[in-house]
Amino acid sequence: MSAEINAELQHVRDYWLKFMKPKSPIYTFLLNDIQIISATKGSITAHLQVLPVHVNSKGTLHGVVSSCLMDWAGGMSIVSTGLDNSGLSTDIHTTYVSVAREGDLLEIESNASKVGASLAFTTVQIRHAGENGQIVAHGTHTKYVKAK
Fold first, then answer.
1. Alpha-carbon gap, residue 74 to 124, rounded angstroms
2. To 10 degrees, the CA torsion angle through 27, 109, 67, 129?
3. Which DSSP string corresponds to 8-22?
4. How far is CA 111 from the centre of its chain?
5. What per-residue confidence (pLDDT) applies to 131?
6. Which ranges of the chain would DSSP assign to H, the alpha helix?
7. How far is CA 146 from CA 6, 25, 72, 116, 118, in A?
């Protein structure tokens, strides 16, 4: 899927590749193949193929991966507002709705509902990509974003 490269998408991709991914071993391990496919001010959409490293002993998407995606996507939607800071987590909630299995393509959508002087509030939805779009997990994420 190709997306028009707008300023927000370029900024988010640059931040991910230059600052976040190289400095976070857990993101590099779990989200190495994530594709940021679109971004507008305050929102991002990404795709992730479920790989063997993402599944639990039952063969379904591990809850820690869903929570990691909540954290990552919340930060990226904050970055899409133009900040060079994805924030520090203060509160994160993940609700697990259905399963995903190895080989499934996930679509992750995050929206920054408010980015204030010190806190940012985001919502994240993880769903199967495509027409069905069945929700796998959704959540909220609050981050501390005050500049140094």
1. 7
2. -90
3. HHHHHHHHIIIIIHH
4. 10
5. 79
6. 7-15, 21-23, 25-31, 63-79
7. 26, 24, 18, 8, 4
Comparing 80-84, 101-105, 111-115, 131-135, which segment has the lowest mean pLDDT?
Answer: 131-135
* Residue 87 vs residues 42, 95, 112, 123, 133: alpha-carbon distances, Å: 14, 22, 12, 14, 29
* Spatial CA neighbour of 98 closest among 64, 52, 138, 44: 138
Taking a C-beta distance cutoff of 8 angstroms, is the pair 21, 29 a contact?
no
Q: Cα–Cα–Cα angle for 78, 12, 6, nearest 5°?
A: 110
pLDDT in tens, 59-80: 999 999 999 999 999 999 999 9
Backbone CA torsion sign across 3, 103, 111, 119: negative
Q: For residue range 69-109, what is the model confidence (pLDDT) as tens digits?
A: 999 999 999 999 999 999 999 999 999 999 999 999 999 99
| Angle (nearest 5°) at CA 38 between 36 and 5 | 100
**Residue 49: both structure tokens together:** 């193929």
Helix H or strand E segment including 96: strand 88-96
- Closest by CA to 110, choosing from 38, 49, 51, is 38
